[in-house]
Amino acid sequence: MTEKTLRFPAEWEPQSAILLAWPHAGTDWAERLGEVEETYIAHVAAITRFQPVLICVADEDVEAYARARLASNRIDMSRVGFITLPYNDTWLRDTGPISLAGAEEFELLDFRFTGWGGKFEAGEDDRLVQRLHEAGIFRNSSVQSIDFALEGGAIETDGAGSLLTTWRCLHERHPDASREQLDQRLRGWLRQDRVLWLDHGYLEGDDTDAHVDTLARFAPDDAIVFQACDDPADPHYAELSAMAAEIAALRTSDGRPYRLFPLPWPVPILDGGRRLAASYANYLVINGAVLMPAYDDPADDGAAAVLAAAHPGREIVQVPCRALIWQNGSLHCISMQLPAGLA
């Protein structure tokens, strides 16, 4: 395969499956496993209405349990596959393969996963892509191992050569690299024409150092969906307002402003006094639908309306995600799409 034929598809392009990892007692979900299982069941139910899902499981017992829970919820099990392999945790957005697509072949980029800068044990997760490939679940593919820490949640592409990311995250991972150096590396590895950097934006309770998928997302036809904050008394107000101004100043590759879709701000969700990172920007686009995190909040329906406008022709499905944000992530963070033809 030649490098010229490879491209990084946008999330809204056709997919073959969604990759997940089932939570179990050996993961950080142990304390609230029952709650998070309900979210996974709802998530798999939503995905399988539109396309297959491939679920990593730690062993045969975890697989048998997951099968039973899913089947008892009347999920179409013909669209559910399982693969047994070890993993530290279930954040597949950051540990799964970043897929480049060619005319007939795929290249799986296997960046280093360091547990978000050494915050958590990540030895098994750093081997996930290679083990998935060795298991033979991908078609017409090769793996490129890259000795550079990068998580899938840190990058967002429009599928047409523009990459969106945050300086806070990339600088935290690579403090000795300049913006120009990081820009060049990202463009080369990810086959991009340019990188758009956001210097503002964060969420309390987010331990990823401001992953872009909690803040701002590309949408079809030169649009950007982003998490806004309209409460001047909220500690996020100044930073997210500055981010909104940055996004408004961005231009498409041909010099036009982006169409902007600000998402509503949910009421603060606390856990023992700790603010949780509830973001509507952490949604997942699949074939024919957008699966959005719902927080049992009055703003849920407003967020759904924004996503319907930004992704016309797709059904908007709300998936309950309060259990996920207890561990500092949400719906997009646990999911990795596989392009059409890969699985």
How would you describe this structure in keywords?
single chain, 343 residues, alpha/beta, L-arginine/glycine Amidinotransferase, Chain A, 4-stranded mixed β-sheet, 3-stranded mixed β-sheet, 10 helices, globular, Agmatine/peptidylarginine deiminase, hydrolase, Peptidyl-Arg-deiminase_porph
Describe the structure.
With about 350 residues, the chain is an alpha/beta fold. It has a single domain, classed as L-arginine/glycine Amidinotransferase, Chain A (5-stranded Propeller). About 25% of the residues lie in helices and about 25% in strands. It contains 10 helices and 18 strands. Strand 1, helix 1 and strand 2 form a beta-alpha-beta unit. The radius of gyration is 19 Å and the shape is globular. The two termini are about 20 Å apart. The mean pLDDT is about 95. This is Agmatine/peptidylarginine deiminase.
Give the topology:
Elements: E1 15-21, H1 33-48, E2 53-57, H2 60-72, E3 80-84, H3 92-95, E4 98-101, E5 106-112, H4 115-118, H5 128-134, E6 141-149, E7 155-157, E8 162-166, H6 167-173, H7 179-190, E9 194-198, E10 216-219, E11 223-227, H8 237-249, E12 259-263, E13 270-271, E14 274-275, E15 284-286, E16 289-294, H9 300-310, E17 315-320, H10 322-325, E18 336-339
Parallel strand pairs: 1-2, 2-3, 5-6, 8-9, 11-12, 16-17
Antiparallel strand pairs: 1-18, 4-5, 7-8, 10-11, 13-14, 15-16
InterPro entries: Peptidyl-Arg-deiminase_porph
Keywords: Hydrolase
Organism: Luteimonas padinae
